[in-house]
Design goal:
Length: 333
């Protein structure tokens, strides 16, 4: 369940970004972005492919120069390359480099050495990402998910205050993903600041204090997942087993905004679920009726211009996204 964990507005700032722009040829990848990440905050950066997330993060990390605007990281400008910042930040990228002919532990001891940390630091970060058992396995023989965890351990080995994680759970199986959530929560519990990019909306909803949704290099929304969901007024979906009531009958129910069909169910969208459930109860009984409340994914899909997966799309809309019902009806109520 989502809770509101937004840090107080007077919390010290870890990352301050003002009017940052970056263009590649004709492509305006980042288009005047301004935001603050507060110390101790778990900040999510979301957005479709090509929205400008990586470009933006790389500018903040000091790996790329902005065309204009200002960035401050822990009180310093990250560009030109600021070596004083390096021990204070940890960076995991989608294309992490490894010493593949070393074992997992040797790799981490090497990385720890670059930061003048000892082997104990390497062992601690191996344990943190649950790779202790694989410590003597060559990096080239680790599975994709294990390498991903090693990349995260490499970003944490020097105990940074500010951690950038770029889709850290992309290659993880569901259990490993949940395990990593625990690791990340523990890091936040220690007061570290985390800037996090993900395409997993459930993950952002579960972990992040605030999220920024980027579209076309701009911020389309920035708030806590809870406030984004409630302020968007996203509707509840009621899934009624097919054959109970007809499409027209459902659309005519008082309080139903839209009706669609999907996966053997009628999908009724409503902002007054209690009222519609009562009406359904009287008509067909509630056996097998499933209630789906709005999620961050609904808000995201609305903002990024896709039809909501698993729910009705507006009648006469564009081509339906995967998982969108084949038939929908706007309510006449
Ligand atoms: N080095 C580059 N040269 C030219 N264009 C680039 C370069 N890097 C990114 N782009 C373009 O800039 C835009 C933003 O890309 P970016 O990688 O920042 O997006 P993203 O949100 O991280 O995407 P994804 O979710 O796919 O990783 C895209 O249109 C991309 O093609």
């Amino acid at each position: 369940m989502t809770t509101d964990r937004t840090p107080p507005p007077d919390a010290p700032v870890a990352v301050a970004v003002r009017e940052v722009r970056k263009r590649y040829g004709d492509r305006q990848a980042v288009d005047g972005l301004s935001l603050d990440v507060r110390r101790g905050e778990f900040f999510g950066l979301l957005g479709p492919n090509g929205a400008g997330k990586t470009t933006f993060i790389e500018i903040v990390e000091g790996l790329r120069q902005a065309d204009s605007g200002t960035v401050e990281v822990l009180g310093h400008s990250p560009w030109p390359r600021n070596t004083a910042l390096l021990p204070r930040i940890g960076v995991q990228t989608q294309a992490s480099a490894f010493f593949v002919r070393q074992t997992a532990r040797e790799h981490l001891v090497t990385v720890a050495g670059l930061y003048r940390k000892d082997a104990a630091a390497a062992d601690r970060s191996l344990a943190l990402v649950a790779l202790t058992e694989q410590r003597d396995v060559l990096v080239e023989n680790l599975s994709g998910g294990q390498r991903q965890r090693l990349a995260i351990a490499s970003a944490l080995v020097h105990d940074p205050e500010l951690i950038f994680l770029d889709e850290p759970t992309a290659a993880l199986d569901p259990q490993a993903r949940r395990d990593l959530w625990q690791v990340l929560r523990a890091l936040k519990g220690e007061g570290r600041t985390i800037v996090y990019t993900t395409h997993h909306l459930d993950e952002a909803e579960a972990l992040c204090d605030r999220v920024a949704i980027l579209v076309g290099g701009r911020i389309a929304a920035l708030d806590s997942p809870h406030r984004l969901i409630t302020s968007a007024g996203a509707r509840t979906r009621l899934l009624v087993p097919e054959g109970r009531i007809g499409l027209d009958e459902a659309a005519a129910l008082d309080g139903v905004d839209r009706v669609g069909e999907q996966g053997g169910s009628l999908v009724l969208e409503t902002s007054v679920p209690g009222k519609v459930l009562q009406a359904l109860d009287a008509l067909t009984g509630l056996d097998g009726v499933i209630t789906r409340t709005a999620t961050l994914e609904d808000v995201y899909l609305e903002l990024t211009g896709h039809a909501a997966a698993g729910g009705p799309s507006p009648a006469g809309g564009g081509s339906p996204a995967e998982g969108t019902p084949a038939h929908t009806l706007e309510s006449r109520a």
